[in-house]
Amino acid sequence: MKIYTKSGDAGETGLYRGGRVRKDDRRIVAIGDVDELNALLGIVHSLAASPEIAGPILLIQSELFGLGAQIASPDPTAAGTTLLGNEAIERLEQTIDLAESQLTPLSAFILPGGSTLGAHLHQARAVCRRAERHLVAFFDGKLDEPAHVALRYLNRLGDLLFVLARWSNQLAGHAETEWRPTTK
């Protein structure tokens, strides 16, 4: 099978198990953000030497691939798409708690950056927040249980990526840079 089908040359793409939409459709924008986040997490995983960071990232990448399929399915249940569950959110929360237990509490806003891994985790957090915003726009207030779980998952994932950025910077010996308002 060839990688190119030419079916998207006119600005449309196929959905999983049914229908075609424009490539700027809210659904496709949300899928694109989740895909970009997943690709960025591939970079994060390649840089992560610590199993406490690399392990969760690999599982999250798999879950994001499933989330993309869920979003791409007009009827995820009929398509047999695996849906994210509350256990995935609970696992993210447990990982947040573990990472936070290794950090000093924040007393100020910090600037994104630090080590290469930390900077990529901060970037992943920002992409995750964009994916979350675009998923909200796609759902347009129609939140069944799978949609609600998907939004909670991305919200918690953004929190986790922030904490992992801090933790990875601490492990690399990079001090956090506190934000200071600029003066006139």
TrEMBL record:
Highest rank taxon of the organism: Bacteria
Pfam families: Cob_adeno_trans
Enzyme nomenclature, EC number: 2.5.1.17
One record GO biological process: cobalamin biosynthetic process
Keywords tagged on the record: ATP-binding, Cobalamin biosynthesis, Nucleotide-binding, Transferase
All copies of domain Cobalamin adenosyltransferase-like, residue ranges: 3-167
Catalytic activity: 2 cob(II)yrinate a,c diamide + reduced [electron-transfer flavoprotein] + 2 ATP = 2 adenosylcob(III)yrinate a,c-diamide + 2 triphosphate + oxidized [electron-transfer flavoprotein] + 3 H(+); 2 cob(II)alamin + reduced [electron-transfer flavoprotein] + 2 ATP = 2 adenosylcob(III)alamin + 2 triphosphate + oxidized [electron-transfer flavoprotein] + 3 H(+)
Electron transport among keywords: no
This protein's pathway: Cofactor biosynthesis; adenosylcobalamin biosynthesis; adenosylcobalamin from cob(II)yrinate a,c-diamide: step 2/7
Uppermost EC category: transferase
GO MF annotations, alphabetized: ATP binding; corrinoid adenosyltransferase activity
Family: Belongs to the Cob(I)alamin adenosyltransferase family.
Protein name: Corrinoid adenosyltransferase
